[in-house]
Amino acid sequence: MKKIQHIRGIFLVISICILYFGINYAISLKKNVVVPPPPPPPLEIPIVLYTGKIYHVFFHSLIIYPELAFHSGGDSQGYQDYMVTKSEFEKILPTLYARNFILIDAHSLVTENPDGTVTKKDLYIPVGKKPLILSLDDVNYYTTKRLHGFANKLVLDADGNIATEVTTPEKQTVVTKNGDTIPIIDDFIKAHPDFSWKGAKGIIAVTGYQGILGYDTENRNAPKYASEVEKATTIVKRLKETGWIFASHSYSHESPFRNDSISLGELTRDTELWDKDVRPLVGDTDIFVGPFGQVFQPYEARRNYLVSKGFKILFGVGMDLYLGYFPKYMMMDRANIDGIRIVKTPYLLTDYFNPQDVIDPARGVK
């Protein structure tokens, strides 16, 4: 028994020694470990008062399949003139970013005062950046464009993000994230968050005469009307959640806007139709994007009517970067990025990109 106790005592002493030397060895190692300093905080880019030019560009729906848009009947010349292809857009976007443009909300340019007047608001953005408003016209996916190389509608993908439904040249219907401007911009900003200032993306200008966003929301007597409205408003909700805002592009977008022959009465009826059929779907907006760039002349009765309907921001079309402030509204011209500009007047686009670097060979321009 004494021998066993003696052995246990030896083991106890050995264990204590091992523990003692182990602890001291660990302490010595710790003393010799060089702990790296914490990484420096990210550099804060100074935010400064911007006093330069304000830029605004707009696009229509993208041509996804030029072989259909340019060669399959329909309005092929119109598509050549007024649209850009997916290939062109995917080259333009990173060039805008590389040239230090940053997307802003148009509302950051104007202050609405309690008495209903509006005044210019100082714009503060990161130093070295150039403010850019982006708008998208006719995001309706008119039936006349079906099977002509454009997307059919906006949808949600499996992750609940905005995507497009597209019919391929092989007549297969697929859901894709690169079928039009909106999901392409969403993904680009996700990869380059500094392209967007305070979450701004762009303005979606919609008419109403063939529904919105690819859904049949104008025909109240259609059997699927309620279902179409529910789908469209689900898309609207997601778009607003992700930084997009809506604007009126008139209800009809008819030719009297183009030739300035629309009467005040006709404009009133058109606006009332948009208020009845579209505003309940997209929500309140104070932005009017003139069809064919038509916002009428200052202080003229038709422009005054639009302002009386709550439109505080009016957008026309022009390459001169015009921006004017009036007692109750702001008016701004937008540069049209389309086939006419890229092919026929490329010198007007050099502030934004080099047209020769982006032009799609499918246009057949030599």
The CATH class name of the largest domain reads Alpha Beta
Total count of domains: 2
Shape: globular
Query: Order of helices and strands, N to C?
Result: HEEHHHEEEEEEEEHEHEHHHEHEEEEHH
Approximate strand percentage? 15-25%
How many β-strands, per DSSP?
17
Main beta-sheet strand count, sense and barrel state: 6 strands, parallel
Summarize the structure.
This protein is α/β, with parallel strands linked by helices and 366 residues long. The protein starts with a helix and ends in an 8-residue tail after the last helix. It is 34% helix and 19% strand.
What do you see in this structure?
- This protein has 366 residues and is of the alpha/beta class.
- It folds into 2 domains: 1-35; 47-363, Glycoside hydrolase/deacetylase (TIM Barrel, Alpha-Beta Barrel), CATH 3.20.20.370.
- Helix content is 34%, strand content 19%.
- The protein is built from 12 helices and 17 strands.
- The chain has helices spanning 2-32, 66-69, 76-82, 86-98, 181-191, 225-241, 255-258, 264-277, 279-282, 301-308, 339-344, 355-358, and strands at residues 47-50, 55-59, 101-103, 110-112, 118-120, 123-126, 130-137, 151-156, 162-167, 173-176, 203-206, 245-248, 287-289, 313-315, 323-326, 329-332, 335-336.
- Strands 2, 3, 7, 11, 12 and 17 form a 6-stranded parallel β-sheet that branches. It has a 4-stranded mixed β-sheet with strand order 13-14-16-15, with no helix packed on it. It has a 3-stranded antiparallel β-sheet with strand order 8-9-10.
- Strand 4 and strand 5 form a beta hairpin.
- The radius of gyration is 29 Å and the shape is globular.
- Residues 10-14 and 25-31 have low confidence and may be disordered.
